[in-house]
Design a protein that fits this description.
By secondary structure, the chain is an alpha+beta fold. The protein is built from four helices and three strands.
């Protein structure tokens, strides 16, 4: 009898994926977002990575495309985590008055970069 991937297999993370998960845990310890941040690996139609707020589960979901070169994954994590950090209220994730890459995101990006680079 054939088993589906969901039924009988565990996803084996690569060394690079485990490193990214470690960085995410470090970020959440040092710079917690207003909701937990979950990381998933999968393809997106138009981006190498995304950050979305799941209002029902009250968590941020970061999605990184595993087909993107692993050398880019840390930069993608920094970029997307900055979104989660800059959304200081649940409404910010969908508030069109604030640009996705505006001043609040820029400050959050700088803070995330400092933690990842070891400067903070």
């Amino acid at each position: 009898m054939a088993m589906s991937l969901a039924e009988g297999c565990h996803v084996i993370l690569s060394k690079h994926q485990r490193e990214i998960r470690r960085e995410l845990r470090k970020l959440y310890r040092k710079l917690p977002a207003i909701f937990p941040v979950k990381l998933r690996w999968g393809k997106h139609q138009t981006a190498h990575a995304t950050c979305n707020l799941d209002r029902k589960k009250k968590q941020f979901n970061l999605l990184i495309d595993p087909t993107t070169h692993p050398a880019q994954w840390l930069d993608l994590l920094i970029h997307e985590y900055a979104h989660a950090l800059s959304w200081t209220h649940a409404s910010d994730a969908k508030d069109t008055r604030w640009p996705d890459h505006g001043p609040l995101w820029g400050v959050a990006y700088a803070r995330v970069y400092q933690v990842v680079s070891g400067d903070k």
